[in-house]
Recover the amino acids of this structure.
């Protein structure tokens, strides 16, 4: 099976540690992973901000870059949802504009092959215990796209529960949005910040040392809020927890 | 072009050619994979469910045999000091044989102000829905005009079980005549308008007593 | 602020004050969380919820596709049952129609059942201008009317008020509208409801004209349906001699049987009850029971324009349950007034800009008043994909395009104030098509990382007022991959 890592533009630029964690984790599980250097961005921000036509070439580019792989793994619920839920819609809208099914045909191959990381682990590799060690009290925030678009369900939770040394505690109001929402965060800063603050205070109230999620975009917003508030609790991507082993100093991979 | 024609023309332009042959595609377009009722129950269990759901929304539920009905109705009215009682023309008069309060006929000439002087009303019903705890009145002679069950503050409604009882909303609708004015009643009047918290007792009868007659 | 990169429009400005208002935040939080949990329980009780939702969606979609047929069928049935049917293209026409109908009765006051359609067209204000006083009789509407306030929720228009505030409004305002509030009124919901009962009773008993909307109109029978809780609806529908119902044309269902779906989904989605206390159905007029004269005003007012948009038309499936408001984290914090419409919350954010068009700043800002979290879609009993429509309307703002306004197809230009954003989107789309350019940009950012502040000036302030920026790493992942040959050359 030829597996490609679609790291996403945000992770590539700002969170390379997450990329290294995915690599380390999958290698440990015996999966060879390629990182096609031509990859860029799935077009989600463009699409969701109302620039569907700007998102189209990015979707085509994604299809070009990843079309030859058997599986495309991404450590981002929202980017996976862009491909799986919204690429079909890009094709439908193009058809509705009288452009036929050409775009749909171009995008079709990559749609079912794109997996969010925890889906790939649980559904494709069939593992729940990935042999990780992470001696921290962790609370988990299921991000909206993971929860409602992809339907990740209890996959992340099962993976976390199998991690040695990890104590998983319930996040109050877990299913409520953190307030990031892409450009929402800057177009509606007051509401976005209020939502982020409530999420951070909820996470802090659990006594956990780490707030875990499967999407660094949400964690950037929550981490920025934590940093400003100087909280004890820190953000961490689920890949970094799952990659950690006893060999890592302080249990943190990277 | 008048407004009717203008609106219809706009609708037709908006939906394109889809507007023809409505009736032919209706059955195909609408999947009805939902249940006709939720769960299987015996007639007795259905009656219990109705009682339970009515009570949950603060209706007061009583069970009785037909023979005991006059005494029960008399007692319920007396307990709440009813001095006048509205009785629709088709209500069996023997049901009210023990009532001490003054009987008031349902007349088209009585004004709302006059009805406001009456303390209670006794009616039958068209049917009751167990799953939702609902009574349906359809203005038949034993139920009277809609306003008589609205203005008096105390409503006693008699339901014959199992004849007038259905399990579910899907079972209720085909038994009702849409040509009659219907009132579906699920508990006494209530509001959630203050802090989205339900409290009973606003404009409709604040006391709803339901007698299930077996 | 408009004209900046973020195109700061009206909703954010209105939300700014709401977010800072602690009483409002607490009121909204309390109310929405109370109902949210109850709704979830009420829905879980039905194991065929998904099927009911699908049926509701398909009934509405079918009706919309054949709306002309069903409107004509409804009209015939209502007339056959003794009613009179009027058609109104817009708010002005509906208002003058209703005003004339009231004037013809010779009455100077009307009692009203809570109705979104009449709020949408500003009927009370139009009647007031003609010297006719309209009394709102729903408890929450009464609170809004007495408080000279604006509604902030579809189901509970006074949701932004807590019991103490309501008590004060009753105490100070009831006397100038009729029967004063009782002496020493307490702030318990039960006592407040009792005060409303006493205040409104004299109005109900003397009312000669009632005005309502409707939740549903059944085309095959000509039946109108109203779901309510308090009994004010029954009062207005049965005691007056004349009843005037103003109903949006999308409220039609084809058959009597269709009610079996919505009578199950609406109460549970709305007040989280198995069934609301009172549902009234009426077909034209009945002999010696209820109003002797019945007028139905069928209202377009932007609905056919909405119908013309094949993505946006799903908003017309809405049955006004308000579940999407109660579950929305943005609504909870911004409050209903920030939406600048009688339709607040997620459904308002897609309905208002379609019904009114996007000529105003507020209507152009509404499609952005969402983090696209999808909670609204999840709870919607007719499966309106609100995020999909929001994004579709954002496209209309950002890119312009063809729309129908007042029945005419026109092309709208991209909105002003989005020029910088548009340029940025184009530039990033261009760069993302060229990995080399992306790489150059990443390297530049990494090389200058020590110089980056954790807060930004200008438009970036919107981020930095409450959040630090992430630190830019020493090298991007792709540079690390290239340097270490995919980690194989990594020395640890």
């Amino acid at each position: 099976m030829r597996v490609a890592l679609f790291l996403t533009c945000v992770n590539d630029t700002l969170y390379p540690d997450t990329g290294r964690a995915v690599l380390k984790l999958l290698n440990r599980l015996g999966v060879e992973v390629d990182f096609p250097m031509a990859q860029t961005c799935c077009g989600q921000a463009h699409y969701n901000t109302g620039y569907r036509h700007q998102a189209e070439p990015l979707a085509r580019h994604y299809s070009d870059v990843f079309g030859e792989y058997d599986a495309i793994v991404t450590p981002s619920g929202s980017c996976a949802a862009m491909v799986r839920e919204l690429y079909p819609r890009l094709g439908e809208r193009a058809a509705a504009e009288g452009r036929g099914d050409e775009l749909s045909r171009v995008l079709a191959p990559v749609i079912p092959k794109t997996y969010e990381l925890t889906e790939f682990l649980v559904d494709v590799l069939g593992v729940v215990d990935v042999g990780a060690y992470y001696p921290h009290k962790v609370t988990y925030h299921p991000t909206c796209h993971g929860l409602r678009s992809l339907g990740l369900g209890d996959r992340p939770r099962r993976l976390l529960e199998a991690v040695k040394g990890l104590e998983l505690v319930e996040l109050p109001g877990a299913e409520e949005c953190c307030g990031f929402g892409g450009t929402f965060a800057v177009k509606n800063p007051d509401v976005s910040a209020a939502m982020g603050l409530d999420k951070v205070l909820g996470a802090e109230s659990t006594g956990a040392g780490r707030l875990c999620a499967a999407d660094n975009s949400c964690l950037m917003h929550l981490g920025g809020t934590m940093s400003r508030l100087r909280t004890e609790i820190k953000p961490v991507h689920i890949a970094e927890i799952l990659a950690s082993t006893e060999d890592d100093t302080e249990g943190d991979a990277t | 072009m008048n407004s009717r024609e203008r609106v219809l023309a706009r609708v037709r332009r908006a939906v394109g050619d889809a507007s023809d042959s409505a009736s032919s595609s209706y059955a195909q377009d609408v999947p009805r994979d939902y249940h006709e009722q939720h769960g299987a129950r015996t007639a007795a269990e259905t009656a219990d469910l109705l009682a339970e759901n009515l009570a949950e929304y603060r209706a007061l539920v009583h069970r009785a045999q037909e023979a005991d009905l006059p005494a029960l109705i008399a007692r319920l009215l007396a307990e709440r000091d009813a001095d006048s009682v509205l009785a629709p023309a088709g209500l069996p008069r023997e049901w009210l044989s023990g009532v001490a309060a003054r009987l008031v006929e349902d007349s088209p000439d009585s004004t709302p102000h006059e009805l406001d002087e009456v303390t209670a009303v006794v009616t039958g019903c068209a049917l009751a829905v167990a799953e939702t705890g609902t009574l349906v009145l359809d203005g038949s002679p034993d139920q009277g005009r809609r306003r008589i069950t609205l203005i008096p503050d105390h409503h006693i409604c008699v339901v014959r079980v199992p004849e007038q009882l259905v399990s579910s909303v899907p079972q209720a609708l085909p038994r009702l005549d849409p040509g009659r004015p219907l009132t579906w009643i699920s508990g006494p009047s209530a509001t959630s308008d203050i802090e989205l918290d339900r409290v009973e007792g606003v404009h409709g009868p604040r006391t709803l007593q339901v007698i299930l007659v077996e | 602020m408009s004209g900046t990169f973020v195109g700061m429009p009206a909703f954010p400005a209105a939300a700014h004050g709401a977010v800072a208002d602690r009483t409002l935040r607490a009121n909204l939080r309390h109310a929405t969380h109370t109902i949210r949990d109850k709704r979830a329980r009420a829905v879980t009780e039905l194991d065929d919820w998904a099927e009911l939702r699908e049926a509701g969606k398909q009934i509405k979609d079918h009706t919309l596709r054949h709306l002309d047929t069903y409107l004509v069928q409804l009209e015939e049935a209502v007339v056959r049952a003794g009613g009179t049917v009027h058609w109104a293209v817009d708010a002005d026409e509906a208002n003058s129609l209703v005003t004339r109908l009231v004037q013809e009765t010779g009455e100077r006051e009307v009692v009203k059942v809570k109705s979104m359609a009449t709020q949408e067209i500003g009927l009370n204000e139009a009647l007031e201008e003609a010297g006719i006083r309209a009394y709102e009789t729903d408890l929450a509407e009464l609170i809004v009317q007495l408080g000279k306030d604006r509604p902030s929720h579809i189901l509970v228009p006074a949701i932004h008020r807590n019991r103490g505030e309501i008590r004060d409004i009753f105490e100070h305002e009831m006397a100038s509208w009729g029967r004063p509030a009782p002496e020493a009124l307490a702030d318990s919901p039960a006592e407040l409801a009792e005060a409303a009962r006493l205040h409104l009773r004299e109005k109900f008993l003397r009312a000669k004209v009632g005005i309502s909307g409707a939740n549903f109109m059944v085309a095959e029978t000509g039946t109108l349906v109203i779901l309510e809780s308090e009994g004010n609806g029954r009062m207005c529908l049965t005691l007056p001699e004349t009843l005037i119902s103003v109903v949006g044309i999308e409220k039609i269902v084809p058959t009597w049987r269709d009610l079996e779906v919505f009578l199950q989904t609406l109460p549970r989605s709305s007040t989280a009850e198995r069934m609301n206390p009172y549902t009234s159905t009426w077909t034209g007029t009945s002999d010696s029971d209820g109003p002797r004269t019945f007028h139905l005003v069928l209202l377009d007012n932007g609905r056919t324009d909405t119908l013309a948009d094949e993505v946006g038309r799903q908003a017309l499936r809405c049955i006004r349950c308000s579940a999407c408001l109660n579950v929305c984290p943005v609504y909870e914090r911004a409050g209903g007034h920030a939406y600048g419409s009688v339709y607040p919350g997620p459904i308002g954010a897609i309905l208002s800009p379609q019904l009114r068009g996007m000529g105003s700043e507020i209507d152009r800002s509404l499609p952005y008043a969402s983090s696209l979290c999808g909670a609204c879609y999840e709870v919607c009993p007719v499966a309106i994909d609100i995020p999909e429509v929001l994004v579709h309307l954002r496209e209309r703002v950002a890119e312009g395009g063809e729309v129908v306004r007042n029945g005419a197809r026109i092309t709208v230009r991209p909105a002003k104030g989005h020029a910088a954003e548009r340029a940025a989107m184009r530039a990033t789309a261009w760069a993302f098509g060229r990995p080399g350019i992306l790489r150059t940009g990443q390297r530049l950012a990494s090389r200058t990382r020590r110089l980056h502040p954790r807060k930004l000036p200008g438009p970036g302030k919107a981020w930095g007022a409450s959040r630090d920026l992430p630190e830019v790493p020493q090298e991007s992942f792709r540079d690390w991959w290239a340097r270490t040959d995919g980690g194989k050359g990594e020395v640890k």
Q: What stands out?
A: Residues 48-299 of chain C form a domain with the Rossmann fold fold (CATH 3.40.50.10420). Confidence is low (pLDDT under 50) at residues 1-9 of chain C. Chain C is about 50% helix and 10% strand. The longest strand of chain C covers residues 242-248.
